[in-house]
Protein 1
Amino acid sequence: MERFNFVLLVAGFGFFGLSFVIMGLMPIAQYSDIDVVTMEQLSQDVPYQFTQLAEQYPDEFLEAFGSLETTPEVFAEAIQYGKAIYIAEACWHCHTQQIRRVDPNTQMEVGHDISRFSPELPKESVSDEYYNEMNYPHLFGTRRVGPDLFAESGRHSNDWHLAHFFNPRQTTPWSVMPPYSWFFSDDEGLVPNKKGLSMVAYMQWLGSWRKQFAPTTFTDLPVILFDESWYPEEEVADEPAEDDDEYDDYGDDEEDY
Ligand code: HEC
């Protein structure tokens, strides 16, 4: 029996070592001769949407970035701030940034990346796209409650994004995305603050390097409209049965959290 434990111990260390080499050391060795794209380099291409933000919200833009000129430096500041908010608000909890080739033939699949970003421009994300300072840390994400955002640039207008952030159900009635009213300095969602402006800049940057933009809607894909039958009204018992063990397990005892 002792020998068996010893074998397990050796195997454990062995596999740990193996994964460390394959997933840690090998990529470092493979990419060591490629220079990481710096913030300065990647901010040279300022998407037109950023200039539009400055034109549309001059006062807020000036207050946020101290300049109305959309220079690469200002743009770099905005997308870095946008990314910081993306991390702080845990957007990565519901969104991925990795376009996958799932099954190009089943276009029915909801959330199918290649067809979402257009069947004509099938392009999954490649390692090259992550090799820049905006990806330290990368935000691959693991859950896909919402769609992948890695090629978000150009899919929607700035206005759409702002309306969507203020209240996602304004643009997408069935959305489960929470509203972000603190991206605005008024109560009606008309005046974005630095967070709002930076977040839109970040969204419009994601994928802007691809130079080919996905249309917002496709005619050859089924349009999925909200259907009330998805949420049938259920009969709700007035009071939960007292000796319902299952209910107790999930009880709303706040001290548990
Ligand atoms: C609870 C999960 C959840 C969180 C948290 C969340 N989202 Fe979403 N998001 C969704 C869902 C679901 C959709 C699809 C429906 C819609 O358009 O609102 C979506 C859609 C989007 C879209 C539109 C994508 C497209 O191309 O149509 C953008 C952009 C977006 N989210 C950005 C964000 C950002 C930025 C944050 C953080 C500030 C965030 N989301 C937080 C669930 C979430």
Note: Residues 86, 89-91, 93-95, 145-147, 149, 152, 155, 168, 172, 175-178, 180, 199, 203 surround heme C (CB under 6 Å).
Protein 2
Amino acid sequence: MTKVFNSPLPLPSRRDVLKYAGLAGAATMVGGGASPVQAKYKHARAAVGRKHALLPVAESTTVDAPEVDLSHLPRVKQELVAPPFAPVHEQVATGGPKIVEVRLEIEEKLMVVDEDTGAEVWALTYGGSVPGPLIVCHEGDYVEVTLVNPASSALEHNVDFHSSTGALGGGGLTHVYPGEQVVLRWKATKPGTFVYHCAPGGEMIPYHICHGMNGAVMVLPRDGLKDAEGNPLRYDDIVYIGEQDYYLPIDEDGNYKTYEFAGEDYTDSLDAMRGLIPSHVVFNGAVGALTGEGALKSKVGDTVLMVHTQANRDSRPHLIGGHADYLWEGGSFSDPPMTGFETWFIRGGAAGAALYTFKQPGVYAYVTHNLIEAVLLGATAHFVVEGQWDNDLMAQISEPGPISI
Ligand SMILES: [Cu+2]
């Protein structure tokens, strides 16, 4: 079968995917658990010569496996929503495990990163947003993902779910070329918050991730979140904050370069990424996406679960004027939450969750506490909190005025 692409970029063929899959399996065995599986991944159409690349896993590894009959399980469709919102979900599961059906439709789209400078990017997205939508399920559920790559796309995509087990997180089983879809089912065996991201192979992996192609999954314990003593922890609201580092190419005059179609910036982007200095670090895709009209709303007394994801780079979230009352820093809900943090840590390639009950009204800046990144590169969100001020917690005893001795 001949496949026609409208991309100018070199793409590994499906034949290459299968060819190198056997090598990946061999490397896994020989390496005795050496991680990750890596090898020279050569293909004639490589844009930047020969590079080390993560190898896709063979579809063939699943061929002889016994079928699993899940026909007895109820199915529910989860309607995904764009960040900073979360899909409708139960904090405590009712009933037994379910099959949660979600549809991730890939969209390659031109997005403004910073209105002030005109910086823009041909974002590679799941569902049209950066990050992709939050998926929520409970431990023991099965998530059945339909990944759709429309014919209008320029590029091949796939998805690696850190919440799943096997086949590079599903990345080896979900390569879809433009005009294809694939359905992957994985079991939510570990409760917590996890990244998912595109990982099509080679340099395309950081290229896609740094063009917005990542999101998060939250796997709740069936009986909900708990503190270290086993007492239930509940939230009144949940916000999903996706941190994105961009490496936007600049021309000789210092202006952000513009491109006509997704993928056209490939070589320039790789050059910019090699410097490891992001041009932007933003929440939810763009500078100011979560300030002003996009500010997050809450009120005194409300408990908010803040899910923070960063697919590529370390981050240090801090709520200015508040704290993390409870913190699942590594994202695992299997472990008791830590408490009372001023600033927490999100590892690149991970999502974490912090729970806070607002105690004062006002505007809270939620930043990464590298304040250069927060202020100069864009990583600032605002919570606007309504309610009654508590003078016991804080009071201005005298207004600013002349110094008196
Ligand atoms: Cu992709």
Note: The domain at 232-386 is CATH 2.60.40.420 (Immunoglobulin-like).
